[in-house]
Design goal:
Layout lengths: L7 E8 L3 E10 L4 E6 L8 H11 L3 E11 L8 E2 L1 H18 L7 H6 L4 E2 L7 H53 L1 H15 L9 H13 L3 H20 L4 H22 L2 H21 L4
Parallel strand pairs: 3-4
Antiparallel strand pairs: 1-2, 2-4, 5-6
Helix pairs in contact: 1-4, 4-7, 4-9, 5-6, 7-8, 8-9
Length: 293
């Protein structure tokens, strides 16, 4: 069984030079693929590359990708100094000293406090130098992520298969109960006529016509055939399709429609009770299908 759950988690860590990267991927169910990328602002330019890696492996679900990246302990720190701005500040301070008639001296902290004179490495990141670390961490995170989705998918497939097989058994039960329903109705009709002191012959045209009308109104052979096909198709998609979530969701709608028709045409308490039980089981199947990719 190849199905995957839309719920999963994976974490990848890569220690290298000059960057250390950690990637965490998690997902929940959604009808379409929705990717949310969270990273430090200076690394937001990697979103398109991260998205491409995810889209190759995932078709549905809300996928959250969190990126944490920092320089390695042994890598050289980068600081950029705007010397022209520092000189301009120094000259401005000298001019202010002359204007006030007293000496004003600049301290190191004065240069640090003016934005733009000294810029730290956070504003100087090189996306190309950081991508190998991010890519390696992404590969491990995706591996774990897909593995967790597959493991839960296998559990989902086993549960769904058992529940659908239960519906098939209920359908067989309904078909067996429906087989003798017309004969039972004819017997009951004659019995009631007899109790009302209205004896009729076995071949009375009016009785035969009533029985024929009843048989036509309560005939569920078409619904049973369609239900059998839908349930078989459900199990086939469950086993053979790589991402059958949409197909299974559609089949659940069709199966529910057919059970509703069987219930409305049943005219039999025992069949009605079985239909109620089948619809309750189908609702559980629909809830599970919402988590299938």
């Amino acid at each position: 069984m190849k199905i995957q759950s839309m719920t999963g988690f994976g974490r990848g860590v890569h220690h290298g030079e000059p960057w250390h990267a950690t990637v965490e991927i998690s997902s929940v169910n959604r009808k379409q693929l929705e990717l949310v990328f969270s990273a430090p602002r200076e690394w937001s330019g990697l979103e398109s590359r991260v998205r491409a890696l995810v889209v190759e492996q995932v078709s549905r679900g809300r996928v959250q990708v969190n990126l944490h990246i920092a320089r390695s302990g042994q890598s050289e720190r980068q600081v950029e100094v705007d010397e022209s701005m520092a000189r301009a500040l120094d000259q401005a301070m000298r001019g202010l000293s002359e204007a006030l008639g007293r000496e004003l001296r600049l301290e190191a902290r004065d240069f640090l406090s003016v934005p733009g004179i000294i810029r730290w490495e956070e504003g100087l990141v090189d996306l190309e130098s950081g991508w190998p670390a991010v890519e390696a961490a992404m590969a491990e995170a995706l591996r774990q992520f897909l593995q967790s989705r597959s493991a839960e998918g296998r559990a989902l497939a086993i549960d769904l298969e058992q529940r659908v097989q239960g519906l098939q058994q209920m359908l067989e039960k309904v078909e067996q109960m429906a087989a003798g329903r017309v004969a039972r109705h004819g017997t009951l009709l004659r019995k009631r006529l007899h109790e009302l002191d209205c004896p009729v012959s076995v071949d009375d045209e009016r009785v035969l016509k009533e029985i024929a009308l009843y048989a036509d109104r309560c005939d569920i052979s078409e619904e049973v055939t369609r239900l059998r096909c839908h349930l078989s198709k459900f199990l086939m998609d469950l086993s053979n399709e790589a991402a059958p979530g949409r197909s299974l969701d559609f089949l659940c709608q069709e199966i529910h429609r057919e059970w509703n028709t069987v219930g409305s045409k049943a005219m039999d308490a025992a069949i009605g009770q079985t239909v109620v039980a089948a619809k309750a089981e189908l609702e559980k199947i629909r809830e599970q299908v919402q988590n299938v990719e």
